[in-house]
Amino acid sequence: MQGVTLLGNQHVTYSDQYNPEVLETFENKHPENEYLVTFNCPEFTTLCPKTGQPDFGHIYISYIPRERMVESKSLKLYLFSFRNHGDFHEDCVNIIMKDLVKLMDPKYLEVTGYFMPRGGISIYPFANYADKEHEALKAQRLHDQLIGVSAKHVK
User: How many alpha carbons fall within 13 Å on the CB side of residue 94?
Assistant: First the structure.
């Protein structure tokens, strides 16, 4: 597992400052298959860039891998590194998406954030990326998010 150094390492340092360098990948053993990998991070935290108060959210990451896949412990450490990072929810979701696209060059990737209310308002940002072969999926998933949020939350 060349390039995977964090998995099984008992002496890992948890960075509390934004740190995309902690991300690691491994070889996709099934690049010929179209399949989806989903990560669920129900304890994502970051800081409001204006007030410095903590924000709590639930992050979902789904992707169709190409040649490289993100290693889950490195992803956990990466998401933890947002703990003292000050950015708006929308920015965090887009930063995560861009970092993972740069890291893996996936066929398709999406990041959804479900943030707890602050001031009586919840924010649910969604960002996605697709290569040329998956542009229709990208458009459909964005449409699904628009319809889903409207149907789910406007009653």
Answer: 5
Q: Which of 41, 55, 99, 144 is catalytic?
A: 55
Euclidean distance between CA atoms 154 and 78, whole angstroms = 34
55 is a catalytic site residue: yes
Does 92 participate in catalysis according to the annotation?
A: no
Pick the catalytic residue: 48, 91, 105, 131? Answer: 48
pLDDT in tens, 81-127: 999 888 999 999 999 999 999 999 999 999 999 999 988 899 999 99
Q: What letter represents residue 27's amino acid?
A: E
Q: Give domain status of residue 6, yes or no.
A: no
Q: What is the rounded distance in angstroms from the CA atom of residue 16 to the CA atom of residue 36?
A: 29
Strand partners, 41: 59
**Tally of domains in the chain:** 1
- Residue 136 placed within a domain: yes
Listed in sequence order, the residues at least 6 apart from 62 whose beta carbon sits closer than 8 Å to its beta carbon are 36, 37, 38, 39, 109, 110
In terms of pTM, does the model score above 0.85?
Answer: yes
